[in-house]
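Sanity check

After download, print the first record. It should look like this:
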Amino acid sequence: MLTVVTESESTPAAPDPTAPAMTGGSLIDEIVRDGARRMLATALEAEVAAYIAAHAGELDERGRRLVVRNGHAEARQVLTSAGAIEVVAPRVNDKRVDESTGERQRFTSAILPPWCRKSPKINEVLPLLYLHGLSSKDFVPALEGFLGSGSGLSSATITRLTVQWQDEAKAFNNRDLSTVDYVYVWADGVHLNVRLDEEKLCLLVMIGVRIDGRKELIALAEGYRESAGSWADLLRDCKRRGMRAPVLAVGDGALGFWGALREVFPETREQRCWFHKIGNVLSALPKSAHPGAKKALAEIWNAEDREHARRAVAAFKLAYGAKFGKAVEKITGDLDELLAFYDFPALRHEAPHDRVEVRDRHRWAVAAA
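Expected structure tokens:
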């Protein structure tokens, strides 16, 4: 088989073409895993060497070092994004005593803690697979071929992680919002068809921008078809936890959110989402007209100021109004809300879209599992 070698090692013999096929993956998978194992072993050895060197001057009454190597621990498998890797971690014998507690000090690897059986990347992918409908009992057979091992992915482990994710989501949705001022907020509904009750068909997501420009998730809640009642419950809960009215809210044309916003935060200005609006306009045009229409619409929301934007709207109406009146009406009917962001120069750098990216949907949707 092919192996990864260092400069100090000789090149291994060519693989025997008559040898039986390897188990656990292809040659390239084995190369990647072997390289990852070697790099991890080198990093662990370097970490222990640095720890021992840092305490080399600490000696006992006989002049012997208090911190020395102590062989290696038993081999164990760790699931990583490169697959299952067998690790033999070096051990440290630390004879120093903590004066405050009277207990012996212990070396704990920051790279590979004693409890670690899965890398952080594996822990990130598990909730995504769960959200995509993979049953807890199916994790082991589904991932065994991909990772080379199903160790640490039992049904009990997945169930325990699910409870942990739900507890984290509950703590997030109960946190205090009184210490943060959100200048702008984006609202959107994320529709998922997995592990949701029939009466809870949508995730309501609200993202906010702080005064310092940082963007963060404000709230995530289960709702029913983005109804006004569901959005009102979310906004009232945020207000109860101390959230103050944002200056501007960005969302699509769904009436539910805007009705709830006017009830809970009536002083907040409204900005229609250009991403959704462009999609609505294009749906009223033939495909042959899409390239020109996209360019004309970009002239509106990319305009230098409101006046130039209105001129671009007039040009769009002149070009498409005669044949495609419905498409033009979708812009002129919401024009004030579509151009509201021109009153807020800082928002123009963010683009007035409320689309929730797919990678973020996965991260936030764990609460609905």
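If your output differs, re-run the checksum step. Summary of this record's structure: The two ends are 43 Å apart (CA to CA).
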